[in-house]
Amino acid sequence: MTANLGNIDRVARALIGLALILAPLLNMPAVWSSSLVAYGSMAVGAILVITAGVRFCPLYRILGISTCKL
């Protein structure tokens, strides 16, 4: 598993992921009042944070994309 995420991509994923995890918990805005949408948002946020942490995105591998400059 080689890294395919660059630093800017990692920071963006981490920030967006954290926002998607925290927004339903704070119920801001009320669009997250549906539990299905809230749990879905938190799941996507967790995936973004995990991929940022391990510097690897399986979807990027499938599409042949790499933002990492080795």
UniProtKB/TrEMBL annotation:
Native source organism of the sequence: Roseobacter insulae
Protein name: DUF2892 domain-containing protein
Record-annotated membrane-spanning stretches: 12-30, 36-57
InterPro entries listed in its UniProt record: YgaP-like_TM (IPR021309)
Pfam family, one: YgaP-like_TM
Keywords: Membrane, Transmembrane, Transmembrane helix
Domain Inner membrane protein YgaP-like transmembrane, residue spans: 1-69
